[in-house]
Protein 1
Amino acid sequence: MTRTKISALLVGASLAVLSTGASALTIGFSQIGSESGWRTSETESIKAEAKKRGIDLKFSDAQQKQENQIKALRSFIAQGVDGILLAPVVETGWDQVLKEAKDAKIPVVLVDRGVKVADESLYLTKVASDFVEEGRLAAAWLATRTSGKCRYVELQGTVGSSAAIDRKKGFEDVVKLFPRMEQARSQSGDFTRSGGKQVMESFLKAEDGGKALCAVYAHNDDMALGAIQAIKEAGLKPGKDLSIISIDAVPDIFKAMADGDTNATIELNPHLGGPAFDAIDAAKAGKPVAKWIKAQGPLYLPDTAADEYKRRSAQ
Ligand code: GZL
């Protein structure tokens, strides 16, 4: 290639960066997998945001395995990326690889879940909602709907994930204030529809076909959608014989709500790329970054479900 062509290319590249004002950064993104509708939306949103900013995003899908995430982080470090986004599948086991990133001076931003580490300086910030608050809100809604008397079952998210641990904690913080609220059974459906259906089937079998059950608390909408199928196949009416509340506010839960099959969902924002990339930019500019960038969502009820479904499925 002639010298003129190379210099033209270099001018072109720098003009592209200047014109969009985007940072020509290379960012590694270790994503958990595609276990739920919400996870897929998060992936699509972060990829779109990276494209809009002219960021070269190296994407890795861990298929729900922590060892794959650790491998991906080590690969990003070896490539010398400018920053890393990590959606940690579970809370623990990250100290060593985060220390390697810190030693390589690569900022790590946690998205949508948290980690338990000995030294909080091992990551730049966490962009996530407050799962304990979500659990408290869900329990307050159920206690109000049932006048504080309900024998419920719980579909937990992925074992060891901060989302499952804290959504469980928050719910139980409030339930213990109501002596006639009783947890009949609680088990992980791993945040998937199939997991939610299988576990709900086992709950119904163990609970005399579900006749004595009052409600289902699902840590995400996908497990609630699976449970709805199981409840129908057992001859009961979901949303009526058993009240149901879940979290994420994916489009399909609004369809189910409009059909009368579920009763409430709490919104979880999937658009975490903007705040995550801004945090990396701020760190590189030597600006302070909060340790937790929180995004909290509202609770939705059947009265707006049809409109919400139309609006969200058109997006
Ligand atoms: C919560 C996120 C959870 C979602 C699920 O921030 O980690 O993981 O609620 C997803 O849909 O599987």
Note: The first helix runs from residue 3 to 20.
Protein 2
Amino acid sequence: MTLSTPRIDELKQHVGHTVTVRGWVTHLRSSGKIAFVVMRDGTGQIQGVLVKTQIEPAVWERFAALTIETSVAMTGEVHTEERSPGGLEMAVTGLEILGESALDYPIQPKEHGIDFLLDNRHFWLRSPRQRAIARVRNEVEQAIHDFFYARGFLRVDTPILTAAIGERAGLFSTEYFDEGNAYLAQTGQLYGEAAAAAFGRIYTFGPTFRAEKSKTRRHLTEFWMIEPEVAWNDSDDNMRLQEDFVSYLVRRALDRCAADLQILERDTAPLERVTPPFVRLDYGDAISLLKRKGSTTVWGDDLGAEDESLIVEEYDKPVFVMNYPREAKAFYMKENPADPRTVLCDDLLAPEGYGEIIGGSQREDDYERLLARIRAEKLPEDAYGWYLDLRRYGTFVHSGFGLGLERTVAWICGLPHLREAVAFPRLMNRLRP
Ligand code: 4AD
Ligand code: MG
């Protein structure tokens, strides 16, 4: 007889039947006559009960050989048991060891230091908290695709190896045959702009790289960014899209990841408040607010993490700070006709101290002005030829933004640091595992 091998989350349909489940041992307990094996397969947990007098001696002996994280195939009849997590239990009659696990499994049920955990990230991923985070991230990623798909956006994959430069922060470079240096993309935006002229509404979703020498809880050297770009959207349209988008992502996590947010002990009340519209705070007003609160930041500066925290504590949901001074922002942002010292842009700051999760702007669509900005920033003009061309052949009003995936996941999950928001974080001092 071949037994069915369901996943643990399918066991409800097998009550009263004998099945085999495969997975990894997470807990072991024995009284000498009765023994318990809790195992995990990625979809759930099941407790197996072994009664010495009712099973073959060989099976009982195999139990004694189990260690934490041994991979096993456990066979038995499934029945309901209210006291058991998941409400089911298995009366074990068969046990097969598929892969032994050495006794010194590094992650033990005690407090470990963060460096130790990061060194053992390949195992740390198996813990309930890390699995909850990964599931929230997965849901947010799916929600991103669903949001744009439903609105007729085309997903465009932009290159990672590039000749041009996008943002100001540090660049990773590598030799590229006879072409000189290639740079790892800091953004897909410039390519996204070209695609927007071909398709109208597009988004990119890919890894981006910044050789930033900052060891903060908000910076990774490799992170994932989602960058929509929309023809005919001005800066106001852009912010409306952002608040709809972010509210949708938060709603999806609340609706579909309630159990995970509970594992993470996330207070969901602040997330429930994330609905459009968000406050729009002019940069000048943000500076006045900061001055009143004792910050030394002056007009012309970009806002630091502390400033962002001071601003968001005034509000109970995300807030836009818009129209920053030109000097504080990237070359491609459109000059603000109402105040040419500033550009038409926005940063979206998440509440509870999480700070900037989105940077967005209307793009400079005037050829001469854009060229002047490229020269003023001393950027390599030849690398931007194709980008300037977009302003020579059918230039168009357009806007877009970049949402940092790890910052968004960290905020939704309530994580203190970005390093837990991605499976294998890349930090200044961390390239392994
Ligand atoms: O504000 P940034 O630099 O904007 C851009 O890259 C634009 N090209 C986006 C666009 O308009 N298409 O980055 C956008 C977002 C930030 O708000 C932040 O969430 C995230 O990317 N981000 C980082 N996340 C983790 N680690 C880093 N080092 C990050 N730098 C930016
Ligand atoms: Mg930014």
Note: The chain is about 30% helix and 25% strand.
